[in-house]
User: Fold this.
Amino acid sequence: MATVVAISGSLRKGSFNSALLRAAAELAPDDLVLVEGSIAAIPLYDGDLEAREGLPPAVVELKAQIAAADGLLLATPEYNQSFPGVLKNAIDWLSRPPADVPRVFGGKAVAVIGATPGPGGTRLAQAAWLPVLRALGTRPWFGKQLHVSGAASLFDGEGGLVDERTRAQLAEYLRGFARFVASPSG
Ligand code: FNR
Assistant:
């Protein structure tokens, strides 16, 4: 049984990316447990705040969650053809202090998915994460890609993923990621 921390890069209640992760938790294979990691209470990174008070409690908690997990699943919105600042801000806090990075992120299996109401499926945002994942020394999974476009017509009013084709793609994606997480060599 493997545990993966699932983080949505959107703070809004009606987020398609958060909804995608809720569907992922439901569709994950039996040997993969998704636990929600929240960035909602993480403040803007401020080196003076860090020097004065250390890491904020929300960062300490999420760091511990990730360090204890077998993998990380990011659902990234795309903002101006790149990743959203709120999620990058959270990752930046999580990379402090640098001496902890190998313990928290080193060799960690990471997958990136994303949803947008637009046509591009967050392709550019997903690609923008790659240098960050490399900087952290993670083990990114490239076995499949999931680009959810036209999201407004795939989810119902309660944020349920109702499009059967997307549900099947997500389930297949998660089966592949579960195999990757379980295999130390990838
Ligand atoms: C967007 N959006 C967007 N969409 C996209 O596919 N490519 C883009 O470059 C952008 N750029 C962009 C910039 C900013 C500042 C905002 C606020 C939005 C639209 C975006 O995909 C949409 O708001 C999603 O609904 C955001 O994800 P959540 O919140 O639904 O998870």
